[in-house]
Amino acid sequence: MERPRSAWKPPGKGADRLFIAGMAIMLGAYTLLILLMLVADFAYVGGVADEGAFLTSFVKAFKSPEIRSAMTLTMISCTLAAILSVWVAVPAGYLLSRCTFRGSRFIDALLDIPIVLPPLVVGLSLLILFQFLPVAVREAVVYERPAVVLAQFAVSCAFAVRIMRAAFDQIDERCALVAQTLGCSRQQAFLRVELPEAWPGVLTAATIAWARALGEFGPLLIFAGATRNKTEVLSTTVFLELSIGDLSAAVTVSLIMVAAAIAVVMTARTWGSRNMNL
Amino acid sequence: MIKLENIHMKQGAFELRDLTLEVPQGAYAVLMGASGAGKTTLIELLCGLRFPQRGRVIIGGRDMTHAVPAAREVGYVPQDGALFKTMTVREQLGFALDLRHVAGDDVALRVREIAEMLDIAHLLDRYPSGLSGGERQRTALGRALSFRPKVLLLDEPLCALDDETRERIMNLLRQVQQQMGVTTLHVTHNRQEAEELGTMGMKIAEGKIIPLDLSGGNE
User: Fold this and answer.
1) Nearest residue in A to B82, CA atom
2) What's the DSSP call for residue B153?
3) Which range of residues forms the domain containing residue B154?
4) Among A178, A185, A196, whose Cβ lies nearest the Cβ of B76?
5) Do A177 and B49 touch, CB atoms closer than 8 A?
6) Which residues of chain A have pLDDT under 70?
7) What residues of A are in contact with residue B144 (Cβ under 8 Å)?
């Protein structure tokens, strides 16, 4: 073997440790930021007023009919938006993953627009779009509850399509081809072989869509308004409470949303999003 | 009987020109050729996963050039098996029969028969993730044979296996061929495999089929 010319030494264990430590600092810093934000929320709600204020503010929030109505609407609208999103995203993601057709690249790029567009612009665009529709349709949707679902769907669905596409990309296409040689039509191969394999992806898409819908705010404010007891959802509640100067109530509602979001993220993790490139 | 007649096909830089291939009824044909020569493409033409621009695909005496894969009655075993991850071995073996609305009892009977022939009867309730390479290939083979196809297409079925397993599956393939008399096209790049299994040899090079001597002599 040839001897190295310079005084080269193999890297020591210390260097490897330093490398991992350097990366760990970055990971740690960001997780710390998230944790501190949550802790601060809790501390604020608990510490503003006297002892027992923590529980009181939650009880107050749950007793308020406006907040309860917002909570109900949030749960219903997010669930509807998630179901609609998955319903569209499964065929859309499948087609984009399996077929290259004329315009498929264009459609692929178009689907990113709701993701990259500023949320306010999405809301404004929806509002403008409905100006061109018949008055009856406009009056039934704009500033009414269907607008909440539509605004949430418009953004959530784009994420769901991305996830479903990734899910189908990871499934070996040849399984479906083999299924066809065994006697399946394309539809049967899809329903009996590909969709069952994509099931974890479907669940991930549903949970992510739900979480996106929960966080939706800008488009809602513009397209659905923030009318108490009508189109108010939890994200708009935070805004409304802030605007009337009730910081404590705003933070309390935020914490309720944090709990809902954590529940959804946990569900998504358990349902096997491990193999997904999100 | 398998026949490809004057096949023309062009896809990007890849091209087949006036390719003709025939495997008589009951023969075990071995197809060799360099990587990228078009071996898999020929298999896919026969399965109906690709279509030629010109020429005819004849399977069992019927013109299947434009038929969908389901209508062709060919058993296809791809390279790594491509097993269905969400189904047990039992479900995979019964899959084609379920599609044909075969009665439950008859499916169970046939599954048992196939599983015993291929020595996978003890694995029927396992999922693919719990199978070894050889077990996967035997399951894929069983799945392809379950509906008694006229033709068996094997795309390098032994290439990822260790020597011992390869030997066992080769014996099994010989046995299946003798028992069922199914016309087989076996794609491989392993000379030994070709010589031991094939009753006729072919080679694909530059888009043409050349006969191949399998007597073990020098090439």
Assistant:
1) A175
2) E
3) 2-84+149-212
4) A178
5) yes
6) 1-5, 48-53, 271-278
7) 181-182
Tokens encoding A20: 């991992």
Report the C-alpha gap between A103 and A106 in whole angstroms.
Answer: 5
Measure Cα distances from B152 to A16, A34, A82, B16 in Å: 53, 58, 45, 22
Planar angle of CA B211, B213, B216, nearest 5 degrees: 160
Reported confidence tier of residue B219, pLDDT bands at 50, 70, 90: very low
A62 lies within 8 A of chain B by CB: no
Nearest CA among A256, A217, A239 for reference residue A57: A256
pLDDT at site A4? 59
**A191 touches B at CB < 8 Å:** no
Contact B141, B114 (CB under 8 A): no
Has residue B51 been placed in a domain? yes
How far apart are the CA of B144 and the nearest CA of chain A, in angstroms?
A: 7
Whether B108 shows a pLDDT value over 90: the answer reads: yes
Q: Looking at chain B, how many residues does it have?
A: 219
pLDDT at B106 over 80: yes
Q: What is the mean pLDDT of residues B59-65?
A: 90
d(CA A271, CA A201): 9
Instruction: Identify the DSSP state of A229.
Output: T
Q: What is the dihedral of CA A185, A191, A194, A196, to 10 degrees?
A: -150
Chain B residues whose CB is inside 8 A of the A175 CB are: 82-85
Which pLDDT does position A1 carry in this prediction? 55
Q: Which of A179, A183, A199 sits opposite B147 (nearest CB)?
A: A183
- Decide if A180 and B48 are in contact by the 8 Å CB cutoff: yes
Each residue of A131-141: b (16+ CB within 10 Å) or e?
eeeeeeebeeb
CATH of the domain at B22: 3.40.50.300
Question: In angstroms, what CA-CA distances link A136 with A140, A179, A221, B204?
Answer: 6, 48, 21, 68
Between β-strands B54-59 and B2-11, what pairing exists: parallel, antiparallel or unpaired?
A: antiparallel
Among the four given CATH numbers 1.10.3720.10, 3.40.50.970, 2.60.40.10, 1.10.3210.10, the one describing domain A65-270: 1.10.3720.10
With bands split at pLDDT 50, 70 and 90, how would you rate the model's confidence at B218?
very low
d(CA A106, CA A222): 28
What is the amino acid identity at position A245? Answer: G
What residue segments make up the domains of chain A, in order of their start?
65-270
Could you tell me if B82 lies within 8 Å of chain A, comparing CB atoms? yes
Handedness of CA B75, B76, B81, B85 (dihedral sign): negative
Question: Can you read off the two tokens belonging to residue A112?
Answer: 């990113």
Kindly report the backbone phi and psi dihedral angles of residue B58, in degrees, each rounded to the nearest multiple of 5, phi listed first: -120, 125
CA distance A172 to chain B (A): 7
Domain count across chain B: 1
Residue B198 placed within a domain: yes
